[in-house]
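User: Design a sequence. Structure:
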């Protein structure tokens, strides 16, 4: 199983955080990152995109394996796997309306939401063909085929926090956000993909222990970094993200995992780990934790 990732980041060009200012001024070698996403394939021909944000067209253009052809309006994208119904993970479905037929994977809660609160599916029906496959905890699902190789997807509940735009439609017991364990049945290795971690539940911890490579939530270094900038009144916990730093942060949890590679994804533009010389980045380097970047490629 091979994959290419976009590191994450939310370009806010009116933002006053030091990272955005450095990007605007051309300092520190910083570049604006595209939205967090991952493309995976077993055979190098049929690709599955994990989450589809507003940058999806740019991401496809930046990766030659996903370029169009040979047919008209055809790209080698077999499906899109959704970890939640947030705008930054689903709005790109509308940008894929001119492509070939897709299989879209997600939880029942996400399916319901994309038919009602954010009616992507009713809109897509007028432009392209697609089919739905449900992801559910305790119900592994396979993608690919026996000839080229199979990937088994395990779905791990992460949070019951709905997107802000769907708060009024949330029901008790809804699983809004999930993480994924992707098992390569050819190599026996496993990739954990968790763009959001609200807290380390026993199930999440057990899942990360299984993985040879972990790609996890690196949105914020500290809980109050956006509040301190005056960008919002909500801290990281309010947004459903556990900070990377601190005694009980994500970095401390990652240091004890047996995984061969530990990679932070979904990184907000305010996070100081984007600066290679920062104290926070040096802390991660000592712990053997990587910071994802656009175009990162790996094989599992």
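Assistant: Done.
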């Amino acid at each position: 199983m091979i994959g290419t990732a976009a590191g994450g980041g939310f370009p806010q060009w009116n933002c006053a955080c030091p990272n955005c200012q450095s990007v605007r001024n051309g300092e520190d070698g910083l570049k604006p990152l595209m939205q967090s996403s991952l493309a995976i394939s077993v055979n190098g021909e049929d690709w599955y995109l994990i989450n589809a944000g507003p940058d999806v067209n740019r991401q496809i253009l930046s990766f030659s394996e996903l370029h169009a052809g040979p047919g008209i309006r055809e790209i080698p994208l077999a499906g899109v796997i959704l970890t939640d119904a947030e705008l930054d993970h689903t709005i790109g479905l509308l940008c894929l309306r001119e492509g070939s037929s897709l299989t879209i994977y997600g939880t029942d809660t996400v399916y319901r939401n994309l038919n009602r609160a954010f009616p992507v599916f009713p809109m897509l029906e007028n432009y392209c063909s697609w089919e739905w496959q449900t992801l559910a905890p305790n119900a592994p699902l396979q993608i690919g085929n026996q000839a080229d190789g199979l990937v088994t997807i395990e779905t791990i509940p992460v949070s019951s926090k709905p997107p802000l735009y769907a708060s009024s439609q949330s029901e008790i017991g809804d699983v809004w956000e999930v993480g994924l364990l992707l098992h390569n049945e050819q190599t026996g290795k496993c990739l954990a993909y968790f763009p959001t971690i609200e807290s380390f539940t026993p199930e999440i911890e057990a899942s990360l222990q299984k993985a040879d490579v972990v790609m996890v939530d690196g949105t914020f270094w500290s809980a109050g970094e956006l509040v301190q900038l005056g960008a919002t009144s909500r801290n990281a916990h309010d947004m459903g993200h556990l900070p990377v730093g601190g005694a009980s942060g994500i970095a401390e949890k990652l240091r004890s995992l047996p995984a061969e590679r530990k990679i932070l994804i979904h990184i907000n533009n305010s996070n100081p780990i984007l600066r290679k010389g920062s104290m926070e980045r040096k802390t991660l380097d000592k712990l053997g934790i990587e910071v994802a970047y656009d175009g990162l490629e790996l094989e599992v």
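Residues 34 and 58 are 8 Å apart (CA to CA). The chain has a mean pLDDT of 87.
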